[in-house]
Specification:
Blueprint lengths: L3 H8 L29 E2 L6 E2 L11 H7 L3
């Protein structure tokens, strides 16, 4: 099983949200995907879109903020 962060990098998207569905799929069923435009703020460093409540100082996402601040 892959986590949301791994899938985010594979799909080259700003955000992945994983949800259980009540659609009757078994362990070997087909995945269902819903794509929505992310209307969040663009990180000034990596250009990924992030939710307004996730933005850090300097209009940065958490990952870029940590890199710049040596964390």
């Amino acid at each position: 099983n892959m986590d949301a962060q791994t899938l985010q990098h594979i799909f080259i998207v700003s955000k992945v949200t994983l949800k259980e569905c009540e659609c009757g799929l078994d362990d070997y069923g087909v995945a269902m995907v819903k794509v929505e435009e992310n209307t969040g703020v663009i990180c000034e460093r990596c250009w990924n879109r992030i939710d307004v409540n996730e933005i850090k100082e300097g209009n940065l996402c958490q990952r870029c903020y940590d890199v710049i601040n040596g964390k």
